[in-house]
Each structure stands twice: as structure tokens, then as C-alpha cells.
Amino acid sequence: MTRKTMTTGAGAPVADNQNSKSAGRRGPLLMEDVHLIERMAHFNRERIPERVVHAKGAGAYGTFRVTKDITQYTCAGIFSEVGKETPLFLRFSTVAGERGSADTVRDPRGFAVKFYTDEGNWDLVGNNTPIFFIRDPLKFSDFIHSQKRDPRTGMRSNAMQWDFWSLSPEAMHQVIWLMGDRGLPASLRHMDGFGSHTFSFWNDQGERFWVKFHFKTQQGIKCLTEAQGQKIAGEHPDYHTADLFQAIEDGEYPKWTLYVQVMPEQDAETYKINPFDLTKVWHYKDYPLIEVGELELNRNPENYFAEVEQAAFAPSNFVPGIGPSPDKMLQARLLSYADAQRYRLTVNHAQIPVNRPRVEPQTYHRDGSMRTDGNYGRQVNYEPNSVGGPVADPSKKEPPLRIEGDADRYDHREGNDDYTQAGDLYRLMTAEEKDRLVNQLVNHLSDVPVEIQQRQLPHFQRTDPELARRIAAGLKLEVSEPA
């Protein structure tokens, strides 16, 4: 077998990769050993900053195929005809854990899809839950801090989590979901995915619709018990990552069916809940699931760092026919995610192969750290110009969004029902599922200061009186009617 010659980063051949250059056999090393210095310097820098959230992840390539016609709702090219296929990359992740944390912990899972469409990249960056803990992005960093490590002890703290949740009633719906069976999936293949936020569609006639995205696993929902998760975490911390990789290697390609819920634009003004509230779901009976297509994962990455770790997702990556909504959490993520990628991977992160669109970008962006292409050569870097530079296409314009109201800081909790949907979720559970939920909540709350336990109980009481009684009994507390 012919072997390639090892080189330096600049391409110069390396004569010896086993021995450093020294002043004599026992003498000190020499600064002129540029190969040694290059290797040490690169090693010191081979870890990019990990994501603040969603740090631990697994991913794979695949294909999305349209199975039903939804062109009455959107002019997006990805959905233009039945049978159309679009390549994609999907990254799964845990939210709170660090890069080396265990897979089988109770935590929401990220479900981020990068569709390499004919009109550019569309990133649908969601979770395995249709809801979230908060509805106002001003509280996002506080929420994440409460789920991370105590600055004094350096350890995760149930007291921090429940202190925040007990003061944030909008978290109840997601708390019930997280502490239930689906808070600990058996594998990445056996869970659903959601866009979570409300997004918008518009069609060729300029009609706008509000939309929610649902990926339903074709493998079936499977979950782990708390004991199973803890056992696996100790024996095989990368269990979910390995399961996904091996399934694809064995040709057992996981699949999800994509559905949408579609709401006519004007319905948002009269719907019984705020349709842009990330802590709420739209009832299926009001807006049924509409099948769109099938997502299949069928190819593993060749290099984890280059493809999974450097994959950069941003909800701001839209294509014509798909856009944002007034969802406040989404509005903030349009900036924060793209900005996080600029920090982690530099302003030119879209040039990394896993992030590069399948169409050639035509921009006036120039220069910046890690510019790895020709930097558009001699093309002008301003617009308007008279030398043939790219120009905007008015036909791709999004329809106008009507906005009313005074600019102010509105109390997002005022007049909001944060308990009915959380209670509905509890009441949908089987007796066995309720037992596991109660046990998990009692265990999670057991080492929390009693004043926080007592502050949390009224939230459970408003959610469902039976749930509150059972938790109070488990904690050996009295539960009373909330004020």
C-alpha cells in the first residue's frame, strides 16, 4: 500500500514525527523545531468553545421526501411537488449537559434539522417537546443558569431548578412533560421532534398561515425508567449516540413523518389562547395534523468534529414561503442562535462544509476570521453598483404583517392560564404513567428546601388537585387550596 507523505499545515514534508529536535541527546529542546511547536499549538486549540446549551449531540445525514401536496399553504420550493427530495443534516442533543455528559439523563432533547434546499438552507431548530419552560426570552439566561451548575459548589442543583420553576408558573406544562415518561427517551430514534414555535407559511397568492411542525417517529415512542437511565449512564454514557450510529451503519434507517398544523392568519386574533405562546399547544381538534412528508436518516458523518460539532443551526435561516411569527421566544432566537455560531465558529461559519448551502451564496459579505474561499475575488463589495453584482428579487418578498399596540414591557403572566394544559397532560396519562410521574417529582423535590417545596405545591394544586395531594403525601407536607 502506498502511503502519503506527512506534511506540516503549510504542506511541507515532515522528516521525523517521532523525535523532537534537541541540543544533543540529553540537551534542551530547540525553538527551531517548528513541527513540534505547530503540533503543540494546534492541540491547545483543537476544542472550539462548546455550546452553552445543547453541547452534547449526535447527528446524521438524510433525506426529506414530500408525500402530500401543501402548496395551498406555502410557496416554499422544498414542498413544491409530491416526491421531491431534499438532503438534510439532523443533530440531536441534550439541553443542559456539558459536552462529556451522559446521554440517558432526564432533559429535553434538541431536534435540529438543516434542509439543504434549492433556495438555500432552511434550519428548523426545535426540541422533542412541543412546548418550553418560558415564554419571554428575557428570562432565558436565568432559566438556563438554574439548570446548570451552582456557582458556589460547581454542581447541578435541584434546589436551583425548583426555586426558578416555583417562581415561574408558565413552566408547569413543560415540567409535567419533562418529569413524565417522555422526559427520558429510550433512544433518539424513538422520540418525536417539534419545531415547537409557531412559524408562518405564505403561498403564491400572498396569503399567510400560521404553522407548527411535528415530526412523528415511525419507530414508535419508547422511554426509559429513571433506574434504567441511571444504570446506562454509568455503563455507557454515549448510549444514544452509539444507538443512532449503529442503526444507520446496519441499514436500519430511522424515519419520521412530518406533519403540520395550519392556522389561517386571522384566526390568531380570536383563538382561545395566544397562538404564539411557546408554553402552549394548539389542540388537534382545532387544527388537525396534516401530513407533509417523510424524513429518513441514512448516512453517518465521517468526522464527528467536522460535521456534528461544527454543524451550526439558526432559526433565522429561512427560505421563501417560510418565516417567523410574533412568538417572542422565536424572535429572540433569530438573533441569539446566529450570534452564538459567529462566536463559536467565526463569522464565516457558513463556509464549513456541513453548513454550506447546496446553492452558491451571492452576498456582499467580505473578509473576517477563517475566510477559506476566494473571498469573491475582484467582485465589488457594495450595492447598488453598475458592474453586474447580485441584486434583490422583489418576487420573494414576504407578505406584510399587520401589527398594532403600544411599545411597552407587558407582563407576560397577567391573565395567562398556565395550568389547564399542564393538567390536561397529566389527566391524559395512564395510571402507571401517573405513578411514575409522581415518584419522579417527589424524588426530584425531596432534597429541595421545604420553603421551595411549599411554594411549588400550589402550582401543582392549580394543575390538578389529585396530583398535588399525591406529591404532598410523598413529601409529607400539607396541601391547601391556593390563594
UniProtKB/TrEMBL annotation:
UniProt domain Catalase core: residue ranges: 7-391
Binding site residues for heme: 337
Domain of life: Bacteria
Active-site residues per Swiss-Prot or TrEMBL entry: 54, 127
Region feature Disordered, mapped onto this chain: 1-25, 382-418
Pfam families, alphabetized: Catalase, Catalase-rel
This protein's GO CC annotations: cytoplasm
Coiled-coil parts of chain: none
Top-level EC class as recorded in UniProt: oxidoreductase
Gene Ontology molecular function terms on file: catalase activity; heme binding; metal ion binding
Cofactor(s) listed in the protein's UniProt record: heme
Gene Ontology BP annotations: hydrogen peroxide catabolic process; response to hydrogen peroxide
Reaction catalyzed: 2 H2O2 = O2 + 2 H2O
EC assignment: 1.11.1.6
Xref: InterPro entries: Catalase (IPR018028), Catalase_3 (IPR040333), Catalase_AS (IPR024708), Catalase_clade1/3 (IPR024711), Catalase_core (IPR011614), Catalase_immune_responsive (IPR010582), Catalase_sf (IPR020835)
Biased composition (Basic and acidic residues): 394-416
Entry's family note: Belongs to the catalase family.
Protein name (database record): catalase
Organism: Alkalilimnicola ehrlichii
